[in-house]
Amino acid sequence: MSTAISARSEAGEFPLRFILLSAVRLGLIESVAVLLIGVGSRMFDGPAETAALGVLLAVALLAVALLPGMWLGSRDFEGIARAAAVGLAAAVVFLAVDVTFFQPFGLYTHRWRDVGGGSNWWYHPIWWMAGTYLPWVGAWLLAARSARHGAPGPIGAAITALTLTAVCGVVAIFAHLPGAGWNAPTFGVAFLPGLALATLFAALGARRK
């Protein structure tokens, strides 16, 4: 955070170099997270696998969603847009690592590209969209909490997002949505609406104030 403040104080806005470095940093974080999840899926099985992957997935999702907004001090539309740009560029960095190392060495027991018949033309756009969506909405959440409380409060934002994610996951399971179950993938998908709901509630609270 101090790096972000110093970078902004030098030119009044974040320089392109800082944004690109943030994207590389986030892309490497995503790569490490996917590597750990891939290794964990091979080391564990059953409930142990679900617990281990659930923790890793929660930490990774929160990092991707909240770190860009924290690094860039996203408090307005431009800051939110910069966070989304970091997310998109970070997805490109991860996919370069994925294509160069993870896929050739067979890291995954299953991956998105299998759903599309083994084609990266399906797998990569899904990652681009999710990789941009999470920092974009996460920056909205931090900005709304800043307007409401005077500070972004990332810990409170994380707790709210995880709580609503759990609610969305339980609703999906009891509604018998296709593929929903007591597993890490369901939690991962439920994080998308959970984060959006956390942002909506924070924004409504900021407006009332």
Write a concise synopsis of the structure shown.
This protein has 8 helices and no strands.
Shape field: globular
Helix/strand/pairing class, anyone? Answer: mainly alpha
Cα distance spanning the termini? 27 Å
Largest sheet features: none
Unreliable stretches covering 5 or more consecutive residues? 1-6
pLDDT average, as an integer?
Answer: 89
Note the total helix count.
8
DSSP strand count:
0
Number of domains: 1
Element order: H for helix, E for strand? HHHHHHHH
Helical content stands at over 70%
Rg is 17 Å
Q: What is the percentage of strand-forming residues?
A: under 5%
Assembly context of the chains: single chain
Notes on the structure:
With 209 residues, the protein is an all-alpha fold. The chain has one domain (2-208). The protein is 81% helix and 0% strand. The chain is built from eight helices and no strands. Helix 2 crosses helix 4 and helix 3 packs across helix 6 (120-149). The chain starts with a helix and ends with a helix.
List keywords for this structure.
mainly alpha; globular; 209 residues
Topology:
Blueprint: H1 2-11, H2 16-43, H3 47-72, H4 77-102, H5 112-115, H6 120-149, H7 154-174, H8 184-208
